[in-house]
Amino acid sequence: MGTIEVRLNDREQKVFEDYAERHGIPLSSMMKQALEERIEDELDLESVKSYEADVQNNNVTVYDYDETKQMLDL
Fold it and tell me: Which residues in 25-38 are b (16+ Cβ under 10 Å) and which e?
């Protein structure tokens, strides 16, 4: 397992440690979780932008409820 060193000033360290303690998780887990969420948010935003570009270029087909039921033989 790799190790990454993060430099924090005293105030940052106190805020981060207090937050992690308040939520009952180790600081390293909190930081990993925050980074994972940030990456996920960016990937989600890329997907939304791609979808919006497809909509703008008329590359999206939308089906209403009845059409969907018919397509699925329901």
Answer: eebeebeeeeeeee
CA distance 68 to 71: 5
Contact of 16 with 33, CB cutoff 8 Å: no
> Would you say how long the chain is, in residues?
74
pTM, rounded to two decimals = 0.71
DSSP 64: -
Please compute Rg for the chain using Cα positions. Answer: 22
pLDDT tens, residue order, the chain (74 aa): 899 999 999 999 999 999 999 999 999 999 999 999 999 999 999 999 999 999 999 999 999 999 999 999 99
**For residues 40 and 44, what is the distance between their CA atoms, to the nearest angstrom?**
6
